[in-house]
Amino acid sequence: MSPSQCLFVSRFAIATLLLLTRAGGITWHDLRHTFATRLRGERVHELDIMQLLGHSSLGVTAGYAHGTPTVIQSAVDKLAEPRGEVVEFVRRAV
Questions:
Q1: pTM above 0.70, yes or no
Q2: Domain-located, residue 94
Q3: Taking the CB of residue 39, how many other CB atoms lie within 10 A of it?
């Protein structure tokens, strides 16, 4: 399936959901935010999310794709991962 076909299917699916949930107060924008946030939660690259949403800049996409607690914790946990071998240096007396 081509990207344009995927985009059409996605828009059709979202439009159908919107019609089914209109009584619940869900808007088109709510679905776009959810879509972007779920993509980010799956670690999809920000540039790909930007293209899928049709945004012209990452700044706009950043307002849609919110961090989730799991993704944020994962980012912090990466700091605790070993980064190679620790080499000890001994100073020589001069």
A1: no
A2: no
A3: 19
